[in-house]
Design brief:
It holds the Pfam family TacA1. Belongs to the TacA antitoxin family. Helix 1 packs across helix 2. By secondary structure, the chain is an all-alpha fold. The protein contains four helices and no strands. The protein folds into two domains: 48 residues; 36 residues, no CATH class.
């Protein structure tokens, strides 16, 4: 994994078992980077994936069709909305 080339002015301190530290050290060595760079890159990749997963909306075909139909409904005349707009313009003197 390539190291991230950005300013590093924040810090996170971790406590972990010797087994996990050894595993991370080996993985970083196989990747050809420092343990810190390996941790940052791995955590950033996982965080991006998780955030995208949580902030994306996946719809079934039926849900998509219902959504599109609801959007199409907005183009239909709304008599109460038209009346409210006319009252507003009348009050403003337009």
């Amino acid at each position: 994994m390539p190291s991230l080339a950005v300013p590093r002015d924040e810090r996170i301190d971790l406590r972990l078992s010797a087994d996990i530290k050894a595993l991370l050290t080996r993985a970083a060595a196989y990747s050809g980077v420092s343990v810190s760079s390996f941790l940052v890159a791995s955590a950033a990749e996982q965080a991006k994936r998780l955030v995208a997963e949580q902030e994306s909306l996946m719809l079934t075909t039926n849900d998509w069709n219902a959504f599109v139909n609801a959007l199409d409904e907005t183009d239909k005349p709304r008599p109460r909305l038209v009346a409210a707009m006319q009252r507003y313009h009348a009050r403003r003197g337009d």
